[in-house]
Amino acid sequence: AADGTIVPMFQEAPDTFQSGADDSLTNLDDVDAARVLRVFGTGGSFVEADGTTYTVSGSPTETATATETLASGTIHVGGVDVAVEGSTPRTYTVELAP
């Protein structure tokens, strides 16, 4: 991936995005509380549809992983800072590739 790329993903993929469609299916509400952020290099940013913003700064020193639960704040991993600005508390696992 290009330097500065941020790829946010659900930690678990939903079966459907429609709430109440079928109780046996995992929907968006079931998986919205956790994200995996794959970060390549530095200098990138990404805005989710709900307005949650991810911004990366610093110089990556190593391949690293860090996990934090927050709505807004900074996750420090492998020489970079990933600033999260949002209103929904989530558990974020940041996977950094320099």
Can you walk me through this structure?
The chain has 98 residues and is mainly beta. The protein has one domain (5-97). The chain contains one helix and eight strands; from the N terminus they run βαβββββββ. It has a four-stranded mixed β-sheet with strand order 1-2-8-5, with no helix packed on it. The chain has a four-stranded antiparallel β-sheet with strand order 3-4-7-6, with no helix packed on it. Strand 3 (45-47) and strand 4 (53-58) form a beta hairpin. The longest helix has 4 residues, at 28-31. The model has no long low-confidence stretch (mean pLDDT 94).
Which short descriptors sum up this protein?
single chain, four-stranded antiparallel β-sheet, mainly beta
Task: Describe the structure concisely for a colleague.
Helix content is 4%, strand content 49%. The protein is mainly beta.
Write the SSE topology.
Elements: E1 5-10, H1 28-31, E2 34-40, E3 45-47, E4 53-58, E5 64-70, E6 73-77, E7 80-85, E8 90-97
Parallel strand pairs: 2-8
Antiparallel strand pairs: 1-2, 3-4, 4-7, 5-8, 6-7
